[in-house]
Design brief:
The protein has about 220 residues and is an alpha+beta fold. The chain is built from 5 helices and 13 strands. It has 2 domains: about 1-65, no CATH class; about 95-220, no CATH class. Strands 1, 2, 3, 4, 5, 6, 7, 8, 9, 10, 11, 12 and 13 form a 13-stranded mixed β-sheet that branches. The radius of gyration is 24 Å and the shape is elongated. The two termini are about 30 Å apart. The model has no long low-confidence stretch (mean pLDDT about 90).
């Protein structure tokens, strides 16, 4: 993810500025208009653009950049293959598939696992085959899972989070406090909803719509207005 690159790159540039003996912290803590780590580093090196490029190419050669780039590409490919394999296993689980679409605004998440977590698409999709505990919470929503595999999908631009998991048996569902006896159908809108199956529980006062087709349950908490 881009944000995971910012911190280590910024830290490395700060260490270089320290090595060069540059007073870089003071300018950035005051009026930092037109100031950046890049501009401060360029000024400290005192190199022309052509000299900077020559140094850049020499460093790539010395530290075998192309070999490292190729190795990283192979690791990424292996990781993506591992994700696809794990996803096939995830989707082949027995029971009922539950998918929840919700706004990521104000949403807090906690999770605990010792299992590998596969992340692809710049953090847009994440899959873990077993969370000992997984919780999503906002002012009007709480989702709690135990010993569950979870697929998370994030649309960063739209601010939408999609969480998918499986439960072993048909869940009980209450809409506005009244239990639904027949979940199958064309879908039902609600103002509040509770879902429970085994150790999985969802409670929400976010208006939405539930749709059940066979062993697939979709709960959409995204406003259409």
């Amino acid at each position: 993810m881009p944000r995971n690159r910012l911190y280590p790159v910024g830290a490395a540039m700060g260490m270089l500025l320290d090595y060069l003996g540059t007073d870089w912290k003071r300018p950035l803590t005051g009026d930092a208009t037109n100031k950046s780590l890049v501009s401060l580093l360029s000024a400290a090196l005192r190199l022309t653009d052509s000299e900077m490029y020559a140094e850049f190419m020499a460093a790539k050669k010395e530290y075998q950049y192309n070999d490292a780039l190729k190795a990283a590409g192979e690791l990424i490919q292996q990781h993506e293959q591992g994700f696809r394999s794990e996803l096939r296993d995830f989707e082949s689980q027995p029971g009922y598939r539950v998918q929840i679409r919700v706004s990521s605004e104000g949403l807090q998440r906690s999770r605990s696992t010792s299992a590998p977590r596969w992340t692809v698409d710049d953090g847009g999709r994440s899959l873990c085959k077993r969370y000992e505990a997984y919780t999503l919470r906002s002012k009007k929503l709480k989702l709690s899972l135990r010993s569950a595999a979870v697929l998370e999908e994030q649309d960063w631009s739209a601010g939408i989070k999609v969480v998918t998991f499986f439960v072993p048996s048909e869940p009980k569902v209450w809409v506005e406090g009244k239990e639904l006896n027949n979940l199958q159908g064309d879908g039902q809108e609600f103002l509040s909803l509770k879902l429970a199956a085994g150790s999985a529980e969802l409670q929400t006062d976010v208006p939405g719509r539930i749709l059940v087709k066979g062993h697939s349950i979709t709960i959409d908490l995204i406003s259409k207005t």
